[in-house]
Structure formats: C-alpha cells, structure tokens
User: Which sequence fits this backbone?
C-alpha cells in the first residue's frame, strides 16, 4: 500500500494552488497596500523637503531673501585666544604693565577707540564697558582722586561761606570799601584753591587734567587721562621721570649685549617718557642715539653723523638702520 506523502515532502509547487493561492493573494494585496503607503509617505516628504535652489542660485550670483536676513556671528579669528588680563594700577612700578595690558584688553573687546576720542554717537553699553574696565583696573588711584575731589569741593564751599560771613559782618559794622577788599583778599576762593590745588591736590602740577576729575563723567578717556596724569605727577615728584631722562641720555651701545638690546633700551625709555609727558622729541633723541654708538661703532657713527648733518637721517630712518644692522650681527 502506498503511504500518503507527509507534510514535509509536499513540493513547493503546491503552495501556488488551493489554499496557498488564497494566501498569496492576500499577501499580494498587503504588498500593494504597503507600496501605496510608501508612495504617500514619499510624496509628503517631497512636499515638506526644503527648497535648496536658492542656495544653489546664490553661488551663481543670486541670494535668497532669507539669506540676507541672517546675521552671522563675528569671525572667531577676530577675538581668538584668551582675554588679556589687566595688571592693576597701584604704583609707578605697575604703571607700564597696566598701560600695556589695558590697551591689549580694550583692543580685544574692540574698545580701544574710546581712548583716542570721546566716542560721540557710540553705543552707551560699549562706553560703560570701557569705563568699567578702566575704573576696575585703576580703582585704587581713581578712588583716591575721587576722595580728593570731594575734599576740594568741601574746602571751596567752606571758603565761600567764610567770605559771605565776612561780607555780612563788614556791612553790619559799616566797614569801609578798602577794608572790605582787604579782608576778601585773604579769604577769596580762588586764592585758597590755588594753594590747595598745587600743593594738596594729587592732580595738580605736572600732568594735570584740563578739568578736575569727576567720576560721573561717562567718557572713558577722562578716567584714563586722570590715572595717567596722577602717575605723571607722582613720577615727577619722586624723581622717576628724572631717572628715565638720565637713562636715555647716558645710553651706550658698549654697555649693552647687542645692538638690538641697545635699540630696545632707546625705544622703551622713550615710550615710558612719552606716557609721562616728558618725551624729548625726535631731534634730540637722534643725537642721543648717535652719541651712544660712538664707542662701539666708530666708523658707522661717523657716517651716520654726516647723514644727520646733511638732513638725511631722522629717528625712523635711524631705527631702521639699526634694525637692519642688528639682524646681521
């Protein structure tokens, strides 16, 4: 007797007939429905996909309106690196470092222009930032100026009150005109302010401000000039300025390790004197620099002196000649 074929021995061709054909019809219906759904998704995705034709057009010279409204951030290379720290201004030893680091910090923030002008029409927030940086770095000096200004105003008010009392007293006692004028000479506010302004005020004398220091002024340059003027006065009173003048006038190439070191001594001393308002000027500085070359470079010195006598050598040309010769040493 023949045994019926087992389920495992049924050939694959039978799956296309009978009940298997119905299954295949159902699967084909599912595939077709899935295909329709995929087509619908693709159509929706294509309708929602952003149009990049404007970007392509911008490469050929056309830009879209959306691209023109975008404000790009500043280039990182403009403010690359860390923020330069400002050395606090406390005394003459920190003055040069304070000035150099302050300028570097202001340049980093794009605020250095406030030291060259009042910044009329500039943004108030930027002006406040520049003033804040200057004040914080020189707070000890500017606070002293602020307190001195308050005392100065108090003395002025006291002198005015005293003068008024004397006027009222002289009027009540029927004092003559000449006696009244004589009493006013010793108590007039201008005479008392002249004494306290030149001897007691820290901003009088050398490097004095055109106007008294006022903390409420918004101009950053006013606060910078106040600090510099105070340090210039201190330098003059303590002999620091005189020391720098002597250092410049006695500079000698033979006492320096190289010509480059001698040139740096000249330029650095002039820069420090210029900050203190005591720069001697280019004409004088040229002769000082030539004098220092006489011992170490006698022949070159004679040649440079001849050029200077003929009016063919100024400070910039001398510094360029020194730099070129220093590179060959």
Assistant:
């Amino acid at each position: 007797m023949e045994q019926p074929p087992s389920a495992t021995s049924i050939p694959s061709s039978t799956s296309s007939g009978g009940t298997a054909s119905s299954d295949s019809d159902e699967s084909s219906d599912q595939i077709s429905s899935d295909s329709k759904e995929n087509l619908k998704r693709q159509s929706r995705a294509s309708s929602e996909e952003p149009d990049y034709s404007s970007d392509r057009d911008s490469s050929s010279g056309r830009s879209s309106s959306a691209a023109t409204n975008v404000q790009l951030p500043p280039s990182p290379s403009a403010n690359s690196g860390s923020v330069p720290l400002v050395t606090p201004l406390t005394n003459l030893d920190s003055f040069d470092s304070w000035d150099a680091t302050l300028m570097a910090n202001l340049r980093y923030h794009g605020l250095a222009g406030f030291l060259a002008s009042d910044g009329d029409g500039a943004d108030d927030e930027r002006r406040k930032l520049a003033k804040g940086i200057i004040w914080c770095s020189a707070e000890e000096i500017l606070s002293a100026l602020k307190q001195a200004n308050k005392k100065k105003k108090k003395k002025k008010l006291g002198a005015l009150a005293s003068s008024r009392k004397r006027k009222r007293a002289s009027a009540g006692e029927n004092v003559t005109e000449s006696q009244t004028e004589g009493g006013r000479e010793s108590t007039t506010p201008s005479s008392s302010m002249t004494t306290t302004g030149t001897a007691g005020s820290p901003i009088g004398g050398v490097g004095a401000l055109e106007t008294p220091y006022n903390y409420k002024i918004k101009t950053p340059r006013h606060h910078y000039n106040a600090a510099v003027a105070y340090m210039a006065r201190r330098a003059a009173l303590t002999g620091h300025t005189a020391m720098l003048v002597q250092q410049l006038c006695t500079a000698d190439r033979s006492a320096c390790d190289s010509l480059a070191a001698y040139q740096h001594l000249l330029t650095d001393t002039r820069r420090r004197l210029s900050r203190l308002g005591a720069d001697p000027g280019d004409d004088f500085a040229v002769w000082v620099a030539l004098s220092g070359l006489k011992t170490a470079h006698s022949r070159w010195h004679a040649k440079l002196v001849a050029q200077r006598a003929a009016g063919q050598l100024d400070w910039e040309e001398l510094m360029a000649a020194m730099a070129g010769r220093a590179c060959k040493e």
Remarks:
- Residues 139-172 form the longest helix (34 residues).
- The radius of gyration is 42 Å.
- The chain has a mean pLDDT of 73.
- Residues 239-328 form one domain.
